[in-house]
Write a structure and sequence with these properties.
- The protein is of the alpha/beta class.
- The protein has two domains: about 30-145 and about 310-380, D-Maltodextrin-Binding Protein, domain 2 (3-Layer(aba) Sandwich), CATH 3.40.190; about 150-310 and about 390-425, D-Maltodextrin-Binding Protein, domain 2, CATH 3.40.190.
- It is built from 21 helices and eleven strands.
- The protein has a five-stranded mixed sheet with strand order 2-1-3-10-4, with helices on one face.
- Helix 8 packs across helix 9.
- The longest helix has 17 residues, at about 225-245.
- The two termini are about 15 Å apart.
- Pfam families: SBP_bac_1.
- Keywords: Transport.
- InterPro entries: Bact_solute-bd_prot1, SBP.
- This is Raffinose/stachyose/melibiose transport system substrate-binding protein.
């Protein structure tokens, strides 16, 4: 989904002016508008709580919160861009999603206040900041880090005599054992298209050299000709055949799929660290059965890249059209102070803050704490394929993979469609 930012964005001179508008103290009055990705019932109280605390300090400040979920925020953002009505503060992913705002002059350059060598910048992990770095500048405040892991039900694994896999073949063996005991190995809903794309994103991180991936993410240099892509798809096909319900996944939403795991009706679910505390909440069957996680193993021949992990931080930008840029910046600093960073990282939210030294077992669950360490220790973070690529290429990935898992096209067909989309995006 293209945001069409360049066509209706402001000028570079306007961006320079907005950067200057960050200087000085804010006027603690007026209304700040925010677009968040915390629209689920579990997460929405966070921003409500933080804005309420900010208002206690500055009673003349009002907030208008627009809280969307992981899927709806894409359409909402496109609508706001089309009507030139982006809020003062808005959510962004890394990759091409963020780049569109910058190229369209829709965001304020925050480099002078959040670069790694600044007072505020030093409070964040450098890797999180650099994930948003664009041509040497920093336009985005990272709020939390994220990565993808396979969550599993310890009781169901034990019942089937399955072992936590350390290799991809070991994963297939575990799936076979689970099926022999009439247990659904992996709950997978691909109605939205991106869940399977996230599997593929981790697999190409194993099978395709990273310098090649970076070139292929850019339409100007993309070729998508490396043999590792077809290999990753053949591995994905084996996984689909051994571990899932097959083509029917395209009719199941991702929310229904994770609920199946929460209810103890499936042994595994490929989930983001952001979902750990929600899927493993008190009172759930998964919590009773015992929750665990492991990284999706590398396929044979690529085990030397096991340190590669799919994931990226997520963050917020300040609109270049904001009438309250200094106030927006002040609120973002308040949002990421240690108190609010700890609140974000602790249950029930379980979103590992990008602020350094916050995530530990004294506030966060042991699984969120350990997975955060895994992210920090990764040798390379592979960005989400649906945000690293241009929207048209990402949509082609999603639609072609839906056909691929249903058996209607081959791995070579998938890559031919992706190459065509990348060429048209130049």
């Amino acid at each position: 989904m293209s945001l069409s930012l360049s066509a209706c964005g402001g000028s570079s001179n306007a961006s320079a002016k907005t950067e200057q508008s960050l200087k000085g103290k804010p006027d603690y009055s007026g209304t700040l508008t925010l677009l968040t990705k915390f629209g689920t019932p579990e997460l929405s109280p966070y921003f409500k709580t933080v804005t309420k605390e900010y208002k206690k300090l500055h009673p003349k400040v009002k907030f208008e919160l627009d809280q969307q979920n992981d899927e709806s925020i894409k359409a909402k953002t496109k609508s706001l861009v089309s009507s030139n009505s982006l809020p003062d503060i808005y959510f962004t992913w890394t990759g091409d999603w963020q780049k569109q705002f910058i190229r369209g002059h829709r965001a304020i350059d925050l480099s002078k206040v959040i670069a790694p060598n600044t007072k505020w910048g030093k409070t964040f992990g450098k890797a999180a900041l650099d994930s948003f770095k664009y041509h040497g500048k920093y336009y985005t405040m990272p709020l939390y880090t994220d990565g993808k892991f396979m969550g599993y039900n310890k009781t169901l694994f034990k019942r089937a005599g399955a072992k936590v896999p350390k290799t991809f073949d070991g994963l297939l063996t575990a799936c076979d054992k689970l099926k022999q005991h009439d247990i659904t190995p992996v709950s997978l809903g691909n109605k939205e298209g991106w869940p399977v794309l996230h599997y593929e994103g981790q697999l190409v991180g194993y099978t395709v050299p990273h310098n090649v991936l970076k070139k292929d993410y850019d339409p100007k240099t993309a070729k998508y000709s490396n043999s590792g892509y077809v290999k990753s798809l053949s591995v994905l096909k084996k996984f689909v055949n051994h571990c899932t319900k097959g083509a029917s996944m395209n009719g199941v939403s991702y929310t229904n799929a994770i609920q199946e795991t929460i209810n103890g009706d499936a042994a595994m679910y490929y989930q983001e660290i952001l979902e750990f505390d929600q899927s493993n909440a008190k009172g759930t069957q998964l919590r009773k059965d015992g929750f665990g996680y492991f990284q999706l193993p590398a396929p044979a021949g690529d085990q030397q890249r096991q340190g590669v992990l799919e994931g990226a931080p997520e963050g917020y930008m300040i609109s270049s059209a904001s009438k309250h840029p200094k106030l927006a910046l002040d609120f973002l600093k308040f949002l990421t102070n240690r108190k609010n960073a700890r609140l974000l990282s602790a249950p029930p939210y379980g979103q590992p803050s990008a602020v350094k030294g916050v995530v530990s077992t004294d506030i966060a669950s042991k699984y969120v704490t350990q997975a955060t360490k895994d992210i920090n220790n990764a040798t390379y973070l592979v960005p989400w394929l649906d945000t690293a690529n241009t929207p048209d290429v990402a949509n082609t990935w999603k639609s072609s993979l839906q056909k691929f898992v249903s058996g209607s096209i081959s791995a070579k067909d998938v890559m031919e469609q992706v190459r065509k989309a990348a060429k048209e995006a130049e």
